## 1
Amino acid sequence: MKMNRNKRAETIAGYLFILPNFLGVFVLVLFPLLFSLVMVFTDWDYLQGFAGVTWVGLDNFVKLFSDEYFLKSLENNVIFTVVTVPCSMVIGLVVAVVLNKFVYLKNLLRVLFFLPYVSSIVAISIVWTVLYNSTDGPINAALRSLGISHPPGWLADPQWALIAIMIMVIWTYTGYTMVLYMAGLQGISKDLYEAASIDGATNLRSFFRITVPMLKPTSFLISVTLMISTFQVFAAVAVMTKGGPINSTTVLAYRIYIEAFQNYKMGYAAAMSWVLFLIIFVITIVQWQGQKRWQNHF
């Protein structure tokens, strides 16, 4: 009997220890998630309190696919992801291969490349905004010194603004991809390269026939994580362009912010957020299925 009491007391103590964590998850994650799911079917001006809630059913989702601002944001996000992810991976792989072989002070260089990824994205965005200044910025000053009399307007030009942000994000993500690729390179047996060298293979041929295939699991992991990150990009757009000029840099996360906190359409913003969630969820499912395939292959 005494043993049962002690066991019950230990069980209660254990639950009490994990209770704060469960409360945090419920208050900060689960409740907002469920609340947003309910808000998807409403039109709510939260400045009026709960009196401003109107049930609209699926009207928010119907409106989404005829909303030119949402479609433009989705288009910008897809372009952003399609360009940023492969470029970050290619540059990161090249840097990883170079640092893994013939470079002195590789540990210092590895830290320098990785530093932008762990730095504040707000601070980085402010610095790049100064660099992109179309009149006094260092980038255009360097282009003029090279003989380009009319350099791009960068953040002030609708045709260049999204490209400018992508360049900054690629520079930021390169350190992340480089670190993961260097870890992958450490797992490739040196015997494969020695056998290829004996067979007369060049370094370039060994790279495409040994390095790239052996890094497929790493590449797959990087591509999925970067796709999720790029679909959630917000701070860089908010700091550098605020979605402009002419909505040329508005992405899904920033569009959700505008609808919720500037247009006061919480229900419509919730519908957008769930569409974004479904996109990320599909990517995650692809990752899960792909991981099983790579595990079975290797």
## 2
Amino acid sequence: MRWAAFDPIAYVNHNYRRLQAEDAEILHLVRDHFGEHFRKQGFGPVSGIDVGAGANLYPALAMLPWCEDITLFERSPANVRYLAGQVDSYDPNWDQFWDVLRAHESYGSLDADPREEFRRTVRVEQGDIFDLGSREGRWSVGTMFFVAESMTASHQEFALGVERFLRALAPGAPFATAFMEHSTGYHTGEHFFPACDVGEYEVRASLEPFARDFKVQRLESAASVRDGYSGMIVAYGWRANSDPAVPAG
């Protein structure tokens, strides 16, 4: 896979230079899910992770009010460099995403400036999603947006990617994920990247063994961000308290 050739600037310019209706809808769902969870918990700051962060900061912003540290976990060297360059003071285009979040009281009441909080909280780590198996239960809140289905054409690898993400979370941790529905692959800059053809059924099946009380829903927003997919799916819920029993061999 040519991940070193991934062009984060082209990706941001195409997807995140302005706030699109799909992302606004995702932000509403995620902020309400996380806001309600942490309103009920009443405990101190936690550790968060965004798996396959890519060149997208808004999943980390969605976890910001409740985290003492957030790991942006990313494989592509080009994306790692982009993320590292955003930590000290992220670009102005991300303000519009924060504006959607801060309409919720949990975000609007954040005492610190979000850029200062982002700089204090976020660290970037280069790594492979499949290597997270050695760090099970490490994080207490997590996001994974457009990753498992956008790194491979294999349904087996897609399901394993979802599993690795969820197993990295502690029991009961809230999570939010997003998927491109029936994607046929995508271009970033001059390079083409494969995708796994998944719908609501495949997303639900991948989450079922490792999550509880989760919801899977197709976005209402129908505008096409790019060619080669039929819609977007958001799934959010909580890490299961236990995993399925392994049959005796």
## 3
Amino acid sequence: MTILVTGATGTVGRQVVAELVRRGERVRALTRDPAQADLPDGVETVRADLTDPATLSPALEGVTGLHLITFGGAYFAPLTTGPEIVALASKAGVRRITVLHGGGPSGVQAAVEAGDMDWTLVMPVEFMANALEWADGIRTRDGVAEPFVDRLSAMVHEADIGAVAAAALTEDGHAGRTYTLTGPETLTVRDKVRTLAAARGREIGLTELTPAQAVERWQGAGMDRETVDFLLDVYGNTPEIGRTVVDTVERVTGRPARTFAQWAAEHADAFRPQG
């Protein structure tokens, strides 16, 4: 059995690949640049682009399981090629599909659900890896500056997302399921900063930005108004699904979800001063 992982060099895709390799599966990784993939030994890398389904046909040869992302192209725009991708997968003999889904309407999701293959939607809340956005400020200034520092998040370890996707691709009993994935605890920004400080062995300051200051920073970074408004809304009024712990990871994998403290210990060097 060969499993094709799209988005294989991304935050979650790498974890799906790693878990499938750990399970002894034959893995084919799709990327736009195989030379830069840096994936585990034994993983076959192939070049294709989900925005151009014609390039996908060779990568699907002999594939029985497929992990799909819902975006593509240089700016991570939502894919509009879902029906073509699903038709090619069905023709190739794919039997199981997992879809990494961020919530909201998705053409890929709709096409998969309308197809004839067993599908599972994997819907993580905030990635623990998002904390890496603070790494530069912590390394160089020992500080984090964020708005809404008491906002709540049930953030999930990316390795747990990969483990759930791998289970759905290789085990029975997951067809037609939508899996919301969280970590084992709900954390504020304050909690996350304290956890990172403990992991790296050095204090980290926390400055709370006003909404106006946050908007100025985000616009200065090149974000458009739609993105800025989205961030203000999701940070200021986090949806219940993003701050409510569920036990999906443990139910699917048979072990508890990883904590943010575990993630922080694994990535502590990213937050330590260099030199």
## 4
Amino acid sequence: MAGDSSSDDIGGARIIEIYRRYGGKIEVMPKVPVSGVEDFAIWYTPGVAEASIRINKDPDESFELTSRWNMVAIVTDATRVLGLGKLLPEAAYPVMEGKALIFKLFGGVDAVPIVHRRREPGAFASLVKDLEPSFGGVNLEDIESPKCFYLLDFLRMELEIPVWHDDQQGTAAASLAGLINAFKIVGKNLRESRIVLLGAGAANIALYRFLKAYGVNPRNIVVVDSKGVLHPEREDMDRLLFSNRYKYEIALETEGGGLAPGSSLEEALRGADALVAASRPGPGVVKKEWIRGMSRDPIVFALANPTPEIWPWEARDAGARVVATGRSDLPNQVNNALVFPGVFRGALDVRSRAITDGMAIAAAEEIARYTEEEIGIEEDRILPPITDWQVHYRVAAAVAWAASREKVARKPRTYAEELENARAIIETTRRKYGALLSAGLIERLV
């Protein structure tokens, strides 16, 4: 999750003691009344046969007669976990559990961690396809690039349920929401501005796609990877065609942003209106003097964790007007937890067959709109905190309405209908959780 801060503030030994005490972050609880053995005639045999017969005739009935409608698989092969890199699948389980916790608390979504050893793309895709009948949606997580792009594209085509890769779409949607408000603050038109994306991994390749769909001219975007500007005359273009067609296509579409082949990041930033860096931990990855070469009132998003590519105060000293990071202890945190709980809430509630780019952009626009309308935007406040519950209801409503307009919803809803529905589901989750805490059935941290 973008924005996770280091555990150093608490201490590693303390973290392990807490994890050992709780034995995990989530559990499964019954949601139906059972007061005696006779109730099992309804919930299990023989009554359950009626539901099975109905679903066998129409599989879509599984969304109405079982928990599938609210169930999401969080699937990873542990090849790129947080800032930790490639891990054993078992070592990724705590991260997936944390994701499931956020899904439930902020979206009312039941999510199940699935960590596996099928790291070859075809085997990974086959596994997810085989799991489809059990779930209403799939959240891909912590998968190395460029495999993550191929998997998302393939599974979006093959599955009849929403598929989402949070490191791509979630971070990109949160970034787009922040950019929308940042450009309002500096008084510039996002669609007419020059934007540099530092890093060509999951988040920025998805952000490039969203910016293009939002109306930004691809030739006003410069994408820089570890070898320089993506440019049609770059010497490794032939290799990229086969190894990473996403970078290859960006190079062709952007034409290197009008720069000469081999241009540096410093040259790319000259006159740029915004920099979105999602590359490697700093500081020092982006220099103050490079920020000084940007346009009037530049926008700088330095999203690497745990340390941004340039510290916010250094960027401000160099003239940046709006600065964002991925950290929760600094202003303007770009956090994908603002996005995915509401996106899945809305997609699940309309029984969507997909999460389209249009739905993701609708989520970004709604987050930006909510911040401006309900909180007020300022240089140090372009996005709401993830604990602002109202934003999740509104994201769900925007996504459900977008899915309905785009004809991917099995059960279309208006914005107003989903706003009421999402609020009811999430508030019920909060009341249940609050009751368990109050009763001491969940031990409080001390």
